[in-house]
Amino acid sequence: xxxxxxxxxxxxxxxxxxxxxxxxxxxxxxxxxxxxxxxxxxxxxxxxxxxxxxxxxxxxxxxxxxxxxxxxxxxxxxxxxxxxxxxxxxxxxxxxxxxxxxxxxxxxxxxxxxxxxxxxxxxxxxxxxxxxxxxxxxxxxxxxxxxxxxxxxxxxxxxxxxxxxxxxxxxxxxxxxxxxxxxxxxxxxxxxxxxxxxxxxxxxxxxxxxxxxxxxxxxxxxxx
Length: 224
What we know:
By secondary structure, the chain is an alpha+beta fold. It has helices spanning about 25, 40-50, 65-70, 95-105, 155-180, 190-220, and strands spanning about 5, 35-40, 60, 85-90, 110, 115-120, 125-130.
């Protein structure tokens, strides 16, 4: 049977659902939870997902007649037949999306650039709305740049030195207090611990300076 109705998407049996990238909740009516499964439409939707290789965000799938009226849908909307989908273009190039949708067999197209989605349905063949503006590139590719291994990054090294030195200074201060209060046998070492603490503080300040310089230099060279 190519069309099956459920009065709520939760009643759709898992064993009968064969579209791995979509769930009954995604296809069901947003206003009532009702679900009309039209297998040819879902087959094309899955084929489109496979062809594009990235998620399809369904804005609207099946609409019950009452919900279609509530949202101002067309009287004969294909959404009420379970044969139409509104799909967000947030993660797609509209031109590539339209081409792929036509290739898998969708015939009806509605373009809604202001709302950010394209309507596709099983037909008849037609289209409406103004197409999305053509983008210079489908999606901006990451600019190739030299990458620093974190362990070798000057910024990481400087920050690490500052962190270690700061912890060392704090540890020395604690040790100094403990030794001064409880270890009378090693009281002669206390003055040296104070000096060591200042050495750690100096290293910490040096590490911070290196971190700041490295970060500024990286920005100057176009690294981030």
